[in-house]
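During the reporting period the student researcher (J.K.) took over the structure-prediction task from the postdoctoral fellow and processed the backlog of single-chain submissions. One of the processed entries is reproduced below for the supervisory committee.
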Amino acid sequence: QVQLQESGGGLVQAGGSLRLSCAASGRTFSNYAMGWFRQAPGKEREFVAVIGRSGGIKSYADSVKGRFTISRDNAKNTVYLQMNNLKPEDTAVYYCTAGSYSKSPSTYDYWGQGTQVTVSS
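J.K. obtained the following structure tokens:
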């Protein structure tokens, strides 16, 4: 089992920045690719970003490319999502996940509880 706990969400104005963190505990953190997904009210959960086990490969949704950066610190069992130039359409609950390197939520084994990000216009 892997337990995931997100933090860093909040309310920010458009154009602002937030940094999400996800602390993992349980099984070996470096065995898993780590992903971020988000879900807005009335919408399906969507892929945001994923990072490989060593941090050497990354992938982003087109909607966040150039604005968001995913990173990880395997010594601290933590994955981060730096979000810059936030837009109102980024408003959602953001979830941290652990599993296989993929853009599909079905390939992830473990999920955090989520953290709310709200971007005001």
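The committee noted the following: The chain is about 0% helix and 55% strand.
J.K. will present the remaining backlog at the next meeting.
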